[in-house]
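Can you please make up a whole protein chain along with its backbone structure tokens because I've never seen that pairing?
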Amino acid sequence: MKRQGLHPHRFRDNPEEKRFAEAWDEAQRGKMLAYLLCTGDQRFPLEPSDREHKVAATVIQWLGSPVGQAWLQDLGYERSRGDRDV
């Protein structure tokens, strides 16, 4: 992965965190974070700082953690039956 959060060491024991992190990393090929943070002309988003990339990747990874998954479930989000169990 090109962009990782603060805790990639957790991937070995938390495969869902790794899945979320890899999906986010793939989304960055399309400059998703640059567009999310853009406050000017969307045709020319500025490149986020390394810190902004690190913070975003850490939050996305956290969403895949057991605590992050519980938080999503508390908000009413559930994995579909088609999602793989890891």
In short: The longest helix spans residues 50-63.
